[in-house]
Inverse folding.
């Protein structure tokens, strides 16, 4: 059974609100989304329940995400009793950036690789949090987790992913070398939100 997880998190504040791009520790987590290959299930974990996420990460899984090294893990660090940056990680954005020399967005990769886009952006997540629309917030976060998981699995299977070029709108192929876990059985019923 693979010990991989796909992780995303949403914040309470923007960088502008906390005083700059180096202030990860004060952005706060509104919700963290997780796909766990051990159970084949999705979880949306609110800030008050973050110890559930810490417990799972203590098992030192391979953590798969998009921009997790520079964003998700530094935001998570104040919440856990260990350094999450020391976990084994596959940062899809970093893998692509290492090949093409610049950053790309998850939405661009999803549209080009999976033919579907994100359901919103991080500012939508902050708005949902502030409006108390927790179900919308969890759904948005888990949509990103699902997209990240699907890009990860596509890359592992096909040894390539794609993104849409900002220069001319063309679809750009990127060779990747990551491996994926054996795909678990799909969980029955609706995805859980907590």
């Amino acid at each position: 059974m693979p010990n991989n997880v796909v992780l995303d998190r949403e914040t309470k504040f923007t960088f502008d609100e906390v005083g700059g791009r180096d202030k990860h520790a004060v952005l706060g987590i509104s919700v963290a989304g997780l796909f766990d290959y051990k159970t084949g299930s999705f979880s949306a974990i609110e800030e008050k329940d973050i110890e559930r996420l810490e417990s799972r990460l203590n098992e030192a899984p391979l953590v798969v995400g998009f921009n997790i090294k520079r964003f998700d893990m530094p935001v998570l660090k104040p919440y856990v009793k260990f350094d999450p940056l020391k976990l084994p990680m596959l940062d899809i954005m970093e893998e692509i950036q290492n090949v093409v020399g610049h950053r790309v967005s998850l939405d661009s990769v999803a549209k080009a690789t999976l033919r579907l886009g994100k359901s919103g952006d991080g500012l939508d997540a902050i708005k949902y949090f502030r409006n108390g629309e927790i179900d919308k917030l969890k759904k948005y976060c888990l949509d990103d987790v699902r997209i990240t998981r699907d890009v990860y699995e596509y890359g592992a299977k096909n040894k390539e992913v794609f993104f849409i070029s900002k220069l001319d709108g063309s679809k750009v192929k990127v060779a990747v070398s990551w491996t994926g876990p054996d795909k678990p059985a799909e969980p029955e019923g609706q995805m859980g939100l907590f």
